[in-house]
């Protein structure tokens, strides 16, 4: 029987037939006309402000109108970004993305007076309005934002920030994406883009890995002044905005980040302190991996090396889907069926394309609510785990598709919980099913690699960004200095586990150039350790005979957009993540994984 053949490029024609379709243009025209009408309607706010019943009806009408406009803007933005991921140089995708950003920015500018009202209402008046079923859908979001009411600028200034950000702040992030698509490399006599070159870092051939690493580094070296300008512009913007907002109470960059991540600063401080104490686990994993590879001079080009047993194993895309689906199904049958559905419907884009962006991600359309996964699939075990990671995000989005849009928006900290939980399901299933020592070694290798990534590499990124923000407060940070800051951060966390570091990592890693978020990296560490704790608790309950663990996990994910991380853990796990005990429990599981890896290498 022939295996199922899945499409490996997105099938988005039912959203819009093409980027230049008349249907899309009609929707954009409708959205623009509706936005003009909405702006006029919001202009009447002063007439109803002091009439409780009229104000409630007014706010309901604003929300319904805005939602229709936002759905169009969201869908067009996702479609344009999707095409831009396949081909970062596509001119129509760039143009359409710009139009969608402008529409969304203009919508939020129009809504600024209403947002200002809701965030500044006296408590009694707010409590009365939020009892309305429709307005109450934004209960958690509004309460969360009201905590920073003292950071709000006057309405006109908020509108200016939103408007300038479209081509200012976000323009720098778009420039970085253009660079990713533009850079061409020659490796082993073949010309390729960064996405294909990055997959070669997982090659079993160390000489090829080194050639790919050197080519990627050289490519970014040629663009380092541009990337330095991008990082300075992004961080300069954030710092200046914080200064303007902080006339009453100045928040530092990490305070702002924690608010965006829906965690307390105490939670982040405890997480990083406990991880620093445990960094030796990641370093130990690297040493064990180096020994197995027979390498005495482990370098950054070796960080994605596969285990020696996997030297010639290429996993077809269809087999990867089946591996993931079976692992998901062992925990939740619907989760397994969902993974196959994603592939069958063409909701995964995996085939290499010219000018393709690097990395992998999950996104979603707003109407209909459908997730999409992007990955450049080359058949490595690392690709399989990455695909499982993104399908974990997609499952999260699928589970909450019936919720109001404001409750379908969750912070990165909790987003990464779903993705890494999915990774853990796949790794655990593969280890249990392994029939040979080589197979067990391969899975244990993946667990050890995770320990090294999350306990060393991710914190090094965090330390670099802390240093970058601190220096940007004093002035422009040069490319040379950015390289030095990277080496210092890697030295703090990798210490002697590598013989050399990756001074251009700040340029090569897209996470530092994402416009919408500073400190994009620590949520991965949070998600890694949090998901391990969730996984361990749920599996213990399943082993004890409980039959509703899949439903308990679904319930946890459905709450991620309507409570803080601390509230979520208290409700579903009965623990306090501001305390070290929670993280120590997860780190003990990492220690077990590293020990298991050591034992399988004999």
Set down the secondary structure blueprint.
Elements: H1 22-42, H2 45-48, H3 52-86, H4 91-120, H5 123-129, H6 139-146, H7 155-167, H8 169-182, E1 184-187, E2 190-193, H9 194-199, H10 206-221, H11 224-245, H12 253-261, H13 265-277, H14 279-293, H15 317-331, H16 333-344, E3 348-349, E4 361-366, E5 369-374, H17 381-399, H18 412-433, H19 437-472, H20 479-494, H21 505-508, H22 522-543, H23 549-558, H24 565-573, H25 580-600
Parallel strand pairs: 3-5
Antiparallel strand pairs: 1-2, 4-5
Helix pairs in contact: 1-3, 1-4, 3-4, 4-7, 7-8, 8-11, 13-25, 14-19, 14-25, 15-16, 15-18, 17-18, 18-19, 18-22, 19-20, 19-22, 19-25, 22-23, 22-25
Organism: Aeromonas lusitana
Protein name: Peptidase M3
InterPro entries: M3B_PepF_2 (IPR034006), OligopepF_N_dom (IPR013647), OligoPept_F_C (IPR042088), Pept_M3A_M3B_dom (IPR001567), Peptidase_M32_Taq (IPR001333)
Give a verbal description of the structure.
With 602 residues, the protein is mostly helical. It has a domain at 22-167: Oligopeptidase f, N-terminal domain (Butyryl-CoA Dehydrogenase, subunit A, domain 3). It has helices at 22-42, 45-48, 52-86, 91-120, 123-129, 139-146, 155-167, 169-182, 194-199, 206-221, 224-245, 253-261, 265-277, 279-293, 317-331, 333-344, 381-399, 412-433, 437-472, 479-494, 505-508, 522-543, 549-558, 565-573, 580-600; strands at 184-187, 190-193, 348-349, 361-366, 369-374. A three-stranded mixed beta sheet has the order 3-5-4, with helices on both faces. The protein has a two-stranded antiparallel ribbon with strand order 1-2. A hairpin with a 2-residue loop joins strand 4 (361-366) and strand 5. It is globular, with a radius of gyration of 24 Å. The model has no long low-confidence stretch (mean pLDDT 93).
């Amino acid at each position: 029987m022939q295996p199922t053949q899945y499409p490996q490029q997105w099938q988005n024609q039912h959203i819009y037939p093409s980027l230049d379709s008349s249907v899309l243009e009609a929707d954009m025209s409708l959205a623009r006309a509706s936005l003009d009408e909405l702006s006029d309607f919001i202009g009447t706010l002063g007439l109803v402000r002091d009439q409780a019943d009229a104000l409630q009806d007014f706010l309901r009408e604003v929300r319904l109108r805005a939602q229709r406009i936002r759905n169009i803007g969201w869908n067009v933005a996702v479609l344009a970004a999707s095409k831009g991921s396949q081909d970062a140089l596509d001119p129509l995708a760039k143009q359409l993305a710009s139009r969608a950003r402008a529409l969304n920015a203009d919508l939020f500018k129009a809504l600024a007076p209403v947002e200002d009202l809701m965030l500044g209402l006296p408590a009694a008046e707010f409590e009365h309005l939020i009892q309305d079923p429709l307005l109450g859908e934004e209960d958690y979001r509004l309460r969360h934002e009201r905590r920073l009411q003292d950071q709000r600028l006057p309405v006109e200034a908020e509108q200016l920030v939103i408007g300038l950000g479209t081509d200012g702040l976000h323009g720098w992030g778009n420039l970085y994406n253009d660079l990713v698509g533009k850079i061409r490399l020659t490796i082993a006599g073949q010309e390729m883009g960064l996405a294909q070159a990055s997959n070669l870092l997982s090659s079993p051939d160390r000489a090829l890995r080194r050639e790919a690493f050197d080519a990627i580094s050289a490519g970014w070296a040629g663009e380092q002044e541009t990337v330095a300008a991008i990082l300075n512009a992004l961080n300069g913007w954030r710092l200046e905005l914080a200064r303007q907002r902080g006339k009453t109470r100045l928040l530092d960059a990490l305070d702002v980040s924690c608010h965006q991540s829906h965690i307390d600063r105490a939670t982040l401080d405890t997480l990083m302190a406990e991880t620093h104490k445990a960094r030796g686990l990641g370093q130990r994993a690297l040493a064990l991996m180096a020994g197995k590879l027979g390498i005495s001079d482990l370098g950054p080009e070796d960080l994605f090396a596969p285990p020696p047993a996997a030297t010639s194993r290429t996993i077809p895309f269809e087999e990867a889907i089946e591996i993931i689906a079976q692992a998901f199904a062992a925990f939740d049958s619907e989760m397994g069926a969902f993974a196959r559905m994603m592939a069958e419907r063409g909701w995964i884009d995996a085939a290499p394309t010219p000018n393709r962006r690097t990395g992998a991600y999950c996104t979603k359309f707003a109407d209909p609510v459908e997730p999409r996964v992007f990955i450049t699939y080359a058949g490595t075990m690392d690709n399989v785990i990455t695909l499982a990671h993104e399908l974990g995000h997609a499952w999260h989005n699928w589970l909450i598709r019936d919720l109001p849009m404001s409750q379908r928006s969750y912070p990165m900290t909790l987003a990464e919980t779903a993705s890494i939980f999915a990774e853990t399901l796949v790794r655990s299933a593969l280890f249990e099913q392994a029939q040979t020592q080589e197979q067990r070694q391969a899975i244990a290798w993946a667990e050890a690699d995770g320990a090294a990534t999350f306990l060393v590499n991710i914190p090094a990124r965090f330390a670099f960004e802390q240093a970058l923000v601190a220096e940007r407060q004093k002035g422009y940070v040069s490319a040379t200095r950015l390289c030095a800051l990277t080496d210092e951060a890697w030295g703090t966390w990798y210490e002697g586990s590598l013989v050399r570091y990756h001074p251009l990592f700040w340029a090569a890693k897209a996470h530092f150039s994402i416009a919408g978020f500073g400190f994009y990296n620590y949520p991965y560490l949070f998600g890694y350790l949090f998901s391990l704790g969730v996984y361990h608790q749920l599996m213990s309950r399943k082993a004890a005979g409980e039959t509703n663990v899949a439903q308990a996990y679904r319930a946890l994910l459905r709450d991620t957009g309507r409570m803080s991380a601390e509230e979520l853990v208290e409700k579903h796990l009965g623990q306090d993540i501001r305390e070290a005990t929670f993280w120590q429990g997860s780190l003990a599981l990492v220690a077990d994984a590293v020990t298991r890896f050591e034992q399988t290498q004999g």
